[in-house]
Amino acid sequence: MSAALETHGLGRRYGSHWALQGCTLEIPRGSVTALVGPNGAGKTTLLRLAVGLTRPSAGSVRVLGLDPHAEAAEALPRVGFLAQEHPLFGSFTVAEMLRVGRELNPSWDDEAARARIAELDLPLKKKVRSLSGGQRAQVALTLALAKRPELLLLDEPVASLDPLARREFMQSVLEAVAERELTVLLSSHILADLERVCDHLVILAAGRTQLAGAIDEIVASHRLLTGPRDEAEDVARLHEVVRASHVERQTTLLVRANGHVYDARWTVHELDLEEIVLGYLGQDAARRREAVSA
Amino acid sequence: MIWLSWRQQRLETLIIAALLAALAAAFVPAGIHVADLFAQQHLARCVDRQNEACSFAIGNFANRAGFLRSLVEGGWLNLIPGLIGVALAAPLLLDLENRTIRLAWTQSVTRRRWIATKGIVALGTVLAAGAAFSLLFTWYQRPFDRIWGHWDEFGFEGIVPLGYVLFGLGLALAVGVLLRRSAAALVVSFGAYVAARLFVQSWLRQRLVAPLSATWGLHASGPNVSHAWVITEGPSDRAGHLFSGSSNVVQSCARPGPNGAKGLDPACMSRHGAGFTHILYQPASRFWEIQGLEFALFGGVAVILIAFAAWRVLRTD
Asked: How confident is the model over B108-131, as a mean pLDDT?
């Protein structure tokens, strides 16, 4: 079976600026993947390419084995998408928004949609524009879920929400994943929003994929090594050095280890996910600084 | 999908419907009134004949046609088809501007189907509104047209209003996809609509088909132009070259006429070789031909503009 999302050298250019470049990744089916990166890293562009809102300038993208643009008629019913600003028709009532979903989606699950709205205590007769941000996000999520997608793409879904609404929203996503076979890819520039619900991670920075994989493997393979500066090169031969910092004769390395790190000269620390992500994003920042000074 | 298209343009459709209803509320009673007046004054006998009794009856009829007549003759109603077209473009442009278009495009319908459905519903609405406008005024104008011909209120009658509403819609859509700001687009396109209408009305329409001309001398009589569109008429030489009001000949032959109005002395004009009348006109029989051409012109441009807007929207990110 094809991956939920597969990209090869995917790029999108706006004018002379590459919003996304050389992005190659594979999101396995059934995973809940966090797409993490700083603002402007290309997360939104990647998601929009995946749902066919944007066409690639380079490379290819396939969702559920389909080209989201050329095969939109087959791909669209199977992909749910929630844009960052949670677009809804402001002058429509909640009930009318549900009707929009029903009219535009042949696979629409009206019963489930109404049950969700009732459960969330959302007033059916209220106009969308008079709802709170959290309520709007929930209506938008209901729309995306009730079309019964196989792949759900959420772009910064909780960025505009207060902490309580964030928690409720993520809970809703978790429940949806528990209920049926659903692949989720959700982006955020704050890892803490996603860590609790995700099992896979993609780090995107400066328009490129920095790291992609299962979270437990990522945590298991990354180590922080502290040791003598003159032997850093030996480590680099064996393991992938993500980030290095030097203080006098001592070096600290963030490495993606090939197997175990056994070396008496190095102190080995385990890292949690946030530290690893920060390591990659810091690396990106360091590279950019180099690029500027060079 | 059709429901969504309708729901999104509901407000604009209701506004246009209310506007047309207000016009009907004013012009249906006025139309009944002028039709009654036409019958009372026995004007049917004057349609193809001119005599003093008829002139008097026609003058009487014109005087009693009601104050709404000035609204019609002032040309203000020409704005209505443009308003209809531009208004129905608004929901489509707002969808683009507010990015709610992304919501529609990430459901299960393809962009093509979405654009086609939205387009057809909007087109159907403006055509229905344009047809209602044309029917109302074609009916209202009947007594006037029987006396003076159809040309005076050309833009309210027949099929051209349908061309105008399509043009208004297409213009607003095309400007909207370029400007990406709905309010500005609606204002700009309405201005452009008015400019285009004025240009066609005052310059192009009379040239859509080469007009007929005639020149005749003092004691001859010209063609019957009672129902025709007279583009220019005035004193001329034998070859049909017109003398303008400021020319020396006209100035020197002007004589005070009855009621203090100035008239031209025929004998004086003859002496100066200007004893002829020249006329440039479109005969009544060409009304539908020119209606067809002007409809095709506005409708054709509208099709191009709408196709351009659809193409741009299809390519939008």
From this structure: 96
User: Which residue segment(s) compose the domain that B306 sits in?
Assistant: 2-209+288-314
pLDDT tens-place string over residues B62-117: 888 888 888 888 889 999 999 999 999 999 999 999 989 999 999 999 999 999 99
Provide the number of CB pairs (under 8 Å) joining chain A to chain B: 62
Give yes or no for A67 touching B (CB within 8 A): no
Whether A87 sits inside 8 A of B100 (CB atoms) is: yes
How many angstroms away from the CA of B140 is the closest CA of chain A?
A: 38
Tell me what ipTM this predicted complex has. 0.86
10 Å CB burial of residue B242 (0-12, 13-18, 19+) is buried
Q: Which amino acid is it at A148?
A: R
Distance CA B303, CA B281 (A): 31
Q: Is A73 on the interface with B (CB under 8 A)?
A: yes
End-to-end Cα spacing for chain B: 21
- Measure CB to CB from residue B102 to each of A87, A92, A143 and give the nearest one: A87
- Residue of B71, B85, B184, B94 lying closest to B128 (CA atoms): B85
List of chain B residues whose C-beta atoms are within 8 Å of the C-beta of residue A54: 317
Please state, in angstroms and rounded to a whole number, the distance separating the CA atoms of residues B208 and B204: 6
Residues of chain B neighbouring A96 (CB-CB closer than 8 A): 7
**Mutate: best of B107, B109, B112, B117, partner A, most A CBs <10 A:** B107
How far from chain centre, in Å, is Cα B70? 15
Average pLDDT over residues A15-28: 92
Domain count, chain A: 2
Could you tell me if B13 and B110 lie in one domain? Answer: yes
On whether both B45 and B160 belong to a single domain, the answer is yes
Chain B from 74 to 103: CB within 8 A of any A CB: 98-100, 102-103
Query: Which helix (DSSP H) or strand (DSSP E) does residue B212 occupy?
Result: strand B212-217
For residues A129 and A28, state if they share a domain. Answer: yes
Number of domains composing chain B: 2
DSSP output for B65-98: S-THHHHHHTTGGGHHHHHHHHHHHHHHHHHHHT
If we measure between CA atoms, which residue out of B43, B37, B45, B21 comes closest to residue B69?
Answer: B37
A79 CB neighbours in chain B (<8 A) are 106
Supply the pLDDT for residue B88: 97
Cα–Cα distance list, A175 to A178, A180, A186, B194 (Å): 5, 9, 15, 57
